[in-house]
Design a protein that fits this description.
The chain is α/β, with parallel strands linked by helices. It has eleven helices and 13 strands. The strands form two sheets. Strands 7-6-8-9-10-12-13 form a seven-stranded mixed β-sheet, sandwiched between helices. Strands 2-1-3-4-5-11 form a six-stranded parallel β-sheet, with helices on both faces. Strand 8, helix 8 and strand 9 form a beta-alpha-beta unit. Helix 3 runs parallel beside helix 4. The N and C termini lie far apart (59 Å). It binds beta-D-fucofuranose.
Length: 330
């Protein structure tokens, strides 16, 4: 009798365990690649939050910067019948068809980071991303206000803009913000504008060529920190002092940029957080409970970090990097 009861119990347990895993919520994530420290932090944050969530399973794809790989990954997610898709597009254009296929398969789509330009023509359940135009504005405004604060507000100053991956949302909008803010600082003369593809190696190469071809560079605006860090190597190799001979403003606020600011080799980094799991996880949990979301893009609140703090940019005041470096998560 006892044996029979034990058998029944064991069977019930096996059944429950199988039933639970058969019901796993499958979250698929189409990631762009591994171009920067920002991207690594973004991948790690989302991967670990989903993998460690009870009852959830992650299907991950790294597209290695290729749009065709992302399109393939999205179609694979549809074939596999995943429950949710997290998507950030390497470039803004060319997603209409495949995202409509996602809609037709009725898989809830969460847009993160770089938004596709067709977002008003498709269905998605939530969107979380940086305000790239504002980040671009802040970069140039920081340089302009900083120069004023050290008595160089009336000096003609040569500025170069190192752009991210051409056609990426973060490049298109940061450039827009950079150029918009430049109009307010007529003493900043734009003498160079080129893509460094969001990578350290290309940032270094572009700076090397600028240092050879341009007479004088006073300010570098790099649309991410990795390119700024690559440029620092090129500036040192040319016998100049980064952070002094050339003022360097990056974007993202990764740990390595904080280190460079504290070391005096970089002047400022405008924050763009890669940590989206704190938005994505509760959203999926609530969607599982049947809640609906608006299609507003949620922009996390972000800061600006620099050598001394206190530079007023209107929408935000800069914070001294050394004061908060120990609290940084990425
Ligand atoms: O700034 C850059 C990364 O899309 C916000 O992509 C992201 C950008 C980030 O490679 O470092």
């Amino acid at each position: 009798m006892k044996k029979a009861l034990f058998l029944v119990l064991a069977l019930v347990m096996v059944f429950t365990v199988t039933a639970a895993s058969a019901k796993d919520v499958v979250v698929a994530f189409s990631q762009i690649g591994q171009e920067s420290d920002w991207r690594t932090a973004n991948t790690d944050d989302l991967k670990s939050a989903i993998e460690n969530h009870p009852g959830w399973k992650l299907v991950y794809d790294d597209a290695q910067q290729k749009q065709e790989n992302q399109i393939k990954a999205l179609r694979n997610f549809i074939t596999q019948g995943v429950d949710y898709i997290l998507f950030t597009g390497v470039v803004t254009t060319g997603w209409d068809e495949v995202l409509k296929e996602v809609n037709e398969a009725e898989i809830p789509l969460l847009l993160i980071d770089r938004m596709p330009d067709c977002k008003d023509k498709i269905e998605y359940v939530a969107a979380f991303g940086g305000d790239f135009v504002e980040e671009g504005r802040r970069q140039v405004a920081w340089a302009g206000e900083y120069l004023k604060s050290v008595g160089r507000g009336d000096e003609d100053v040569n500025i170069v803009i190192m752009e991210g991956t051409t056609g990426a949302g973060a490049q298109v909008d940061r450039t827009k913000g950079n150029l918009e803010a430049l109009k307010k600082y007529p003493h900043l003369k734009l003498v160079g504008q080129q893509s460094g593809n969001f990578t350290r190696a290309e940032g270094q190469a572009v700076m090397e060529s600028w240092l050879k071809s341009l007479d004088k560079i006073d300010v570098l605006i790099a649309q991410n920190d990795d390119m700024a860090l690559g440029a620092i190597d090129a500036i040192k190799a040319a016998g100049k002092v980064p952070g002094k001979d050339i003022i360097i403003v990056g974007c993202d606020s990764v740990k390595a940029a904080f280190d460079a600011i504290v070391a005096g080799e970089m002047n400022c980094t405008v924050e763009c957080t890669p940590l989206y799991s704190r938005f994505v996880v509760p959203t999926i949990e609530k969607l599982e409970q049947g809640e609906k979301f608006s299609k507003e893009i949620v922009h996390p609140e972000e800061g600006v970090y620099d050598t001394n703090g206190g530079i007023d940019l209107g929408t935000v005041k800069s914070t001294k990097a050394a004061d908060v470096i120990s609290t940084r998560q990425y």
